Amino acid sequence: MQQITPGLARIRIKNLHLRTYIGINQEEILNRQDVVINGLWRRCNGP
Q1: What residues form DSSP beta bridges with 44?
Q2: Given CA atoms 10, 16, 19, 24 in this order, what sign does their dihedral have?
Q3: pTM of the entire structure?
Q4: How far apart are CA 40 and CA 44, in angstroms?
C-alpha cells in the first residue's frame, strides 16, 4: 500500500463509467453516449 505524504491531498477517479448527453444538437441529445473518466488531482497543502 502506498504511503501518503503529509500535506499532500489526492483525489483519484478510476474507470468512472457514465451514460450522458454530449452535444447540443437534437440528435446528440436524444442519443446518450458512454463515457469513461480517469483522473488524478494533487494539491500540496504545505508552505
Answers
A1: 8
A2: positive
A3: 0.59
A4: 13
Phi, psi dihedral angles at 42 (to 5 degrees): -125, 145
Residue type, position 35, single letter:
V
By C-alpha distance, which of 43, 36, 40 is closest to 17?
36
**Whole-Å CA distances, 30 to 5, 6, 34:** 46, 47, 13
pLDDT tens digits along 10-44 = 899 999 999 998 888 998 888 999 999 999 998 88
Say if residue 3 is exposed, middle or buried (CB neighbours under 10 Å; 0-12, 13-18, 19+). Answer: exposed
